[in-house]
Write a structure and sequence with these properties.
By secondary structure, the protein is α+β, with helices and mostly antiparallel strands. The chain contains 13 helices and 19 strands. Helix content is about 25%, strand content about 25%.
């Protein structure tokens, strides 16, 4: 491959469990992707994936963040064409001036559009808004063997690219469907719950809300399962006279402390304290930047306090038919093994699942846990619980996910692997995830 000022660089996954040193380049324009000699490679956006989706051993990493132009806007159709390196922060800021927005926004503003496609990400209410793929009109994809292709929904290459972990080629341009933004502020109404089941019932009743999710204390020491359901809606009208969206990229601090602040006792106390404060405050109104991106606010301290011990995330999607029994089995497992869980989050979901996409009709369950050797047995049993209840794990969230569990949980795992061989017989596009999962 004709590389552009390549250098060696060490990359680390967001959960800090995987580090690899490999070649890196950062081309300034899309046409610099065009190649003569081809090496194993992978595109990289903001690099915010919990697992190592955008780097791998002996894999050339191509940073696409300079592909950051907003190219074409159709006011009548409310559509925009952007390059893949445009961040969610920039898209939200640009859309705010036109009172338009893209409804699926994951929790951190520096994620790129290309990264959102690679993970087929979801936002704060995937039951109402679906996942990222649902509002894409077309994607321009570059592959060294096939050149540039404009791919559209309801095609195999589209389904393989959305949620395909960057393994089908470089996303270069995207046409997005935008929607009218009702307000620049969001009203957040918290409701106390004492169990995961209670939260699931409230979320189901409020499924048409603009934002709906819950968070719960994960510590079995005290106050286990207690939490807050957040039902949120856009206010009416626009209130801010000046932009409240920061010009500079947001940064999540990392702690140099060798030990984690989080433990069974401290987790229970802090979560209980935070819950009481939130419920005492009652209904609050925030600007949409704060509402869409909580990790730029107080939540950023959550990861800072893991310290040098780091953390793991386990996110699964359970069908509506199985969710009650799954939550019963999950709580029983937690009470039995007493893992170092910090929080549990529930989000209602919908969607048609294809290839390796994390979507479907059901409930998403997110567990955050200290990266502790003592909890590997819990995670292993959680794997089996996931398989038993026919749930699917979120591949880009779990750095320890195995090929066996992925193959058993994703009905189209084999078809996805075969499709990659068809479009990329030399398997040019690789990453730590693809190597670990034998894709």
């Amino acid at each position: 491959m004709e590389t552009h000022n390549p250098k060696r660089m060490k990359f680390t996954s967001f959960d800090e469990s995987t580090s690899i040193e490999t070649l890196f380049q950062k081309p300034s324009t899309i046409n610099m992707l065009e190649q003569k000699n081809i090496l194993a490679q992978i595109p990289r956006g903001g690099g915010w994936s919990y697992a190592a989706a955008s780097f791998g051993k002996n894999v050339l990493v191509t940073d696409t963040t300079l592909f950051n132009k907003i190219l074409e806007f159709d006011e009548a159709e409310k559509t925009v064409i952007v390059e893949s390196g445009v961040t969610l922060r920039r898209l939200l800021e640009w859309g705010l001036t036109k009172k338009l927005f893209y409804p699926v926004l994951p929790g951190f503003p520096e994620i790129t559009i290309g990264g959102c496609i690679a993970g087929n990400v979801h936002g704060k209410n995937p039951l109402k808004d679906g996942t990222f793929k649902e509002h894409l009109l077309w994607i321009e994809l570059y592959h060294p063997r096939h050149g540039y292709q404009k791919i559209e929904p309801n095609s195999q290459i589209f389904d393989a690219t959305c949620g395909g972990l960057g393994l089908t080629g470089f996303v270069t341009k995207v046409k997005l469907q935008l929607y009218s933004l009702p307000s620049d502020r969001i009203k957040i109404v918290p409701t106390a719950v004492n169990s995961l089941i209670d939260a699931a019932l409230i979320l189901e009743k409020n499924k048409h809300s603009d934002i709906a999710y819950s968070w719960h204390n994960g510590s079995s020491y005290a106050h286990f399962e207690e939490g807050v359901v957040r039902i949120c809606s856009f206010e009416k009208g626009f209130h801010e006279k000046e932009s409240f969206i920061p010009k500079n990229p947001s940064i999540l601090m990392k702690s140099s402390f060798p030990k984690s602040f989080w433990g069974k006792f401290t987790t229970a106390r802090v979560n209980s304290f935070g819950r009481n404060i939130e419920l005492k405050q009652g209904t609050v109104t925030k600007n949409i930047y704060q509402g869409f991106f909580p990790f730029t606010q107080k939540a950023k301290w959550f990861y800072f306090l893991y310290g040098g011990e780091r953390f793991r995330v386990y996110q699964i999607l359970v069908s509506n038919e199985n969710i009650k029994k799954f939550l019963d089995d999950l709580t029983e497992l937690i009470k039995d093994l007493k893992p170092n869980l910090t929080i549990i989050v529930l989000k209602p979901f919908r969607g048609e699942q294809k290839f390796l996409q994390f979507c479907g009709d059901g409930m998403s369950v997110i567990l955050e846990i200290k990266n502790s050797i003592s909890d590997l047995n819990f995670l292993s049993k959680l794997d089996e619980l996931t398989v038993y209840h026919h749930a699917i794990p979120y591949i880009i969230k779990d750095s320890r996910l195995s090929k066996r569990i992925t193959e058993e949980c994703y009905p189209e795992y084999a078809q996805f692997k075969e499709f990659l061989k068809k479009i990329d017989p030399d398997r040019i596009f690789k990453s730590e995830i693809s190597q670990r999962l034998d894709l």
